[in-house]
Amino acid sequence: MSKEEKEAARDFAQSGASEVEKFTQARVSDSTLKQNIAQLPEDQALAVLVNLIQVGYNVTTDSPITANAVNTYSPSQTYEATNLFGGTLYTFTHKITFRSDGSWMVSPAPSRTVTPSVKTIGWSYEGATTDEQRGGVNFNFYESNVVGYFKLNVVYDVQHNYPRIFLKGWANGTYDYSVGL
Fold first, then answer.
1. Which of 3, 40, 63, 110 is deepest in the core (most CB within 10 A)?
2. DSSP 101
3. CATH class (in words) of the domain with range 54-180
4. How far is CA 154 from the centre of its chain?
5. Contact 102, 138 (CB under 8 A)
6. Domains of the chain, residue spans
């Protein structure tokens, strides 16, 4: 697309931003949202949908350590879905917690938490499609792989996204991760 075409697309999408804000502030239900959008003129309904579609994502990292003879590690990754204007549609956070003596994972058993959070109307979290864990106590690693399922349904199913966050912690306190869609 040319620069002018991109600018025209952004201007068009921006025309739906006020409707999205209005629906979000009113905290309308999904069924009410569908009815309201169905009643809009076609161009305006399309502009609203453009504001709700995911076009990018950001990743943030947090890795606190509790230092003792046996250390506790809690690395996490957050996947933040964004729209055309950088607004947050939903987030998906995956955190593992493990204890280590520097060589091996020790009790209590490592654990993981997954925190989905929908930030914009029309999106819903439908659950995890993959939830795998390996390693742990008496191993020198613990890994957890989670794939979430988020859906945008406004009048009809518009978008299905499956963000994946893989975390692997090593007994020496380091960790690896992979985040993607």
1. 110
2. -
3. mainly beta
4. 19
5. no
6. 1-52, 54-180
What does the alpha-carbon distance between residue 13 and residue 25 come to, in Å, rounded to a whole number? 19
Question: Within 13 Å of residue 97, how many CA atoms lie on the same side as its CB?
Answer: 10
End-to-end CA distance of the chain, in Å?
A: 24
With tokens 């009113």, the residue in question is 26
Query: Cβ of 85: how many Cβ atoms within 10 Å?
Result: 12
Angle formed at CA 98 by CA 96 and CA 104, multiple of 5 degrees: 135
| Alpha carbon distance 126, 115 (integer Å) | 12
Per-residue HEC secondary structure of 148-174 comes to: EEEEEEECEEEEEECCEEEEEEECCCC
Q: Strand pairing partners for 98?
A: 73
pLDDT tens by residue, 73-109: 999 999 999 998 889 999 999 999 999 999 999 999 9
Residues 2-54: tens digit of each pLDDT: 888 878 888 888 888 888 888 888 888 878 888 888 888 888 888 888 888 89
What sign results for the dihedral spanned by CA atoms 82, 86, 87, 92?
A: positive
